[in-house]
Amino acid sequence: MNTKGSKKNIWSYFIWGVLLVVVLIPDTRIFVQRQLMKLGLFRPKLETSAQQEPKKEQQTISVTGGPAVSFVDDKGNPVHVRDLKGKVVLINFVDNMVSAL
């Protein structure tokens, strides 16, 4: 029996198994990326702007004072955003080209 060839096969199966686990399980990918960053082998570029604005407490957007935005419902009637204040809204954007196929 060739022990050198069988050891090579075992190692190749082991490497393929590890690669499959890393690809298929998201938590292992996160772990591997963190370890590579700790080792210094993986350094993503982080861009920072020269002038960073200080954080404000909270910005609110007024629906009534904003631009007049309207959508068309499934019956062709225009629906204005100002009329939807206080209501739960679901907006579904559908591409007409997809339905033509």
Can you walk through the features of this model?
It is a single chain. The mean pLDDT is 74. Helix content is 41%, strand content 6%. Strands 1-2 form a two-stranded antiparallel sheet. Among the domains are: 37 residues; 27 residues, no CATH class. It contains 3 helices and 2 strands. Helix 1 packs across helix 2. The longest helix has 22 residues. With 101 residues, the chain is mainly α. The chain is elongated.
**Computed CA radius of gyration, to the nearest angstrom:** 27 Å
In total, how many beta strands? 2
How does the overall form come out from the CA principal axes? elongated
SSE succession: HHEEH
Counting helices, strands and paired strands, the structural category is mainly alpha
- Compute the average pLDDT: 74
How many DSSP H or I helices? 3
Portion of residues within helices:
40-55%
Distance between the termini: 59 Å
| Largest sheet strand order | 1-2
Largest sheet: 2 strands, antiparallel
Strand content: 5-15%
Low-confidence stretches: none
